[in-house]
Write a structure and sequence with these properties.
alpha/beta, three-stranded mixed beta sheet, globular
């Protein structure tokens, strides 16, 4: 299922919240309409947490997580860390990550088994991805783009990458992570599919400006219907 929404007037909804198969994190001051929509769609399938990261609403861009764990930037305050840790079950690991490229969600795309990463992430971050998220890590670029998390999104069923990624690169990605990839856009032609979408294995949210043609491709790629 692909659901249109926005955050205030922003269509880049992947900037503002994190969605996995087991939990969803949205900003404290989320608009009532946005909060009610997310809550109604996730129902009781996962934990819904309100929070912030280093005082920012940009939770989706500053964190990276899956159903096994969550990495937060080193600037996360004690109160913010505690709020998230206390609302998640013990089996979901939570850790700070002292990465120079602190916008983790811009640099990394992940599902429950694999992480595609900016080749410049530190070895310490790579180890945390393996230990906390339990994933195999691949360093790469997509059509020369290093911001993997902005230009790519995938779940455990399929993925979407920006339109300049070649068919050969799509095949390489599929071989690496074991799910098929399509090229596509969001929000009327934006290649920033990682910023304009959030997804898990059964639900995808997209920005209000996303066209029906784009939604068709998104649904084909992420397979959440």
């Amino acid at each position: 299922m692909v659901i249109k929404t926005n955050f205030e007037k922003f269509n880049e909804i992947g900037v503002f919240f994190k969605l996995t198969n087991d939990y969803c994190i949205i900003p404290y001051e989320s608009p009532a309409k946005f909060y009610q929509l997310v809550r109604s769609e996730i129902k009781k399938k996962m934990i819904l947490i309100r929070g912030s990261i280093s005082g920012s609403r940009c939770i989706g861009r500053l964190t990276i997580g899956n159903s096994k764990g969550l990495l937060l930037p080193s600037q996360t305050t004690v109160e913010e860390f505690s709020n998230i840790r206390e609302n998640l079950p013990d089996q979901i690991l939570v850790s700070r990550c002292n990465e120079r490229l602190s916008a983790l969600g811009n640099c990394i795309a992940v599902n429950d088994f694999s992480a595609l990463c900016n080749p410049e992430i530190s070895s310490e971050t790579e180890e945390l991805l393996q230990d906390i998220l339990g994933v195999e890590v691949f360093r790469l670029t997509l059509a020369k783009e290093k911001l993997i998390g902005s230009f790519c999104i995938f779940n455990n069923k399929g993925g979407l990458v920006h339109p300049q990624v070649t068919f050969e690169e799509q095949e390489e990605l599929s071989n690496l992570v074991g799910v098929p990839f399509l090229t596509g856009t969001v929000n009327r032609g934006s290649p920033l599919v990682g910023s304009g979408l959030v997804t898990n294995d059964f639900l995808t949210f997209c920005g209000f400006q996303t066209t029906q043609t784009e939604i068709f491709v998104i649904d084909m790629g992420l397979k959440t219907s």
